[in-house]
Amino acid sequence: QALAAAALAGGGINQLYLRALEPPVPKAIPPLSEAELARGTALAKAYARGMMARHKRRERDYNNKIRLKWAAVAALPTEAMRRHALWVDPDDVIAPLHRRLPTHFPPALSQDESGGGHIVTRAQLAEWQGGGGGGGGRGDG
């Protein structure tokens, strides 16, 4: 402690280091009054109801779109047309190039002329590798 007191008295970088090593003092959270607690609870419940209503609206919209799609496919006159409408080209089902993929490591930053870094997208990576942004990583360049 005497060493710490001497370093603090001297000031400078030692004082900065010692302050950095000290644990932060937690601030006391003032207790909420009954009115504040009731208001916060009411706001939380209203938020949860609103989010659930939004979720249900989206789900209803998705289900309507799926139902309309299947009704449109069923309305096609021939079986060949129905098969063609439902066929998906496996080369067209790659993820969009602007979508970030989950990884175990943070994204790589590239340095541009302005000195700032930005996240490299899959499209930029494909372009830099000479793929021109297409191909979906199939190796056909």
Automatic annotation (TrEMBL):
Top-level taxon of origin: Eukaryota
Organism the protein comes from: Bicosoecida sp. CB-2014
Protein name: Uncharacterized protein
Family matches, as Gene3D superfamilies: 6.10.250.3440
